[in-house]
Structures are given as structure tokens and as C-alpha cells.
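User: Design a sequence. Structure:
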């Protein structure tokens, strides 16, 4: 599925710019996937596992909010 998503993004000239693991609530991590298309960046809520899988395919940086590091 992640390879298919990369193919779709590549065909539409979009790319993953970065991933941000931005919250931890009730032992559940939350993340955003930053998608760049036509010069604009859109942050999309998603599961951290999916975000990280896409970041690996794009060799995009993975950031973690400081408060998440402190809590985790």
C-alpha cells in the first residue's frame, strides 16, 4: 500500500516533505505527514506507522515534538 501511495504521489508531482510525530495521548502517538504539491505544503493527520513508512520511501526527515520525547 505504501509503495502504491508513493507511485500515486510521484505521478501527480507531489512528495513527502517531512513527518512530524506531534502528540502522545493515552499512550497513543499521533503524527502528521507533510505533503508538498504545487509549491504548497499540506499537513495531513495520519497514523505514525504510515507516516514513517512514507518518510522512509521518500528519505524525508522524521521529527518528534519535544513534549512527546519527554512523555514517551
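Assistant: Done.
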Amino acid at each position: 500500500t505504501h509503495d502504491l501511495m508513493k507511485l500515486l504521489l510521484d505521478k501527480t508531482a507531489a512528495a513527502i516533505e517531512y513527518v512530524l510525530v506531534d502528540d502522545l495521548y493515552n499512550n497513543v502517538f499521533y503524527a502528521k505527514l507533510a505533503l508538498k504539491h504545487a509549491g504548497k505544503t499540506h499537513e495531513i493527520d495520519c497514523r505514525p506507522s504510515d507516516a514513517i513508512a512514507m518518510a522512509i520511501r521518500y528519505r524525508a526527515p522524521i521529527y518528534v515534538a519535544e513534549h512527546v520525547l519527554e512523555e514517551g
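The mean pLDDT is 95. The longest helix spans residues 48-58.
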